[in-house]
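Look over both lines:
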Amino acid sequence: MIRLEALTRLYRTGSEVVRALDGVDLTIERGEFIAIMGASGSGKSTIMNILGCLDRPTAGRYLFEGKDIGKISEDSRSRLRGREFGFIFQQFNLLPRMNAIEQVELPMVYQSGGNRRKRAKQALTMVGLAERMNHKPTELSGGQQQRVAIARALVMSPRVLFADEPTGALDSRTSEEVMAILEGLVRNQGITVILVTHEQDVANYADRVVRMRDGKIIEDRMNRTAAEPTRQERLAVG
């Protein structure tokens, strides 16, 4: 689904050149749950921004479904983001005056048709918030706010979901609940989830872990095979 070839991203700060990505090669399959790990400045957020078409590489190629993303227009990149990708961040980015269902309807604001409310309800039900649809952010816990953000990312039926430190503002129990939702999206919906985190406990939910340092991949290993139980299945048994 995704292939990076010798991907490089340089930033200039005055006379200094920072090599945020340094010749990265990476392949991600459909329906894969991959965690990208690394310390601050390792390049993990830079690679996610490029994958999500929020940034462009300085050199190298980014292929999505065989298409060279570096050769398409900005309008085409914007359509790709809206049609194929969903985004979840550490900060929930909810609007204080809107209730949950209005938050989830936001990505569909420019769409015609009268099924926006129905789709928003379905997305909120999927993340376990059927009883909280009319609540505003101040009336929701941190975990519930993150669930609203997940529902908002899912309402356009993306094929790839990018999650940048999605549990960073949550306690451990709530983090487990959120990660179980992401894991379920991979297993039950076939969505490709690309997770950026510095927490090993969070990365353990993924099928595969990629570690970065100084803009390079230093490790790429499988966490589990398709025949092995997921983390949630292991916890249920144990």
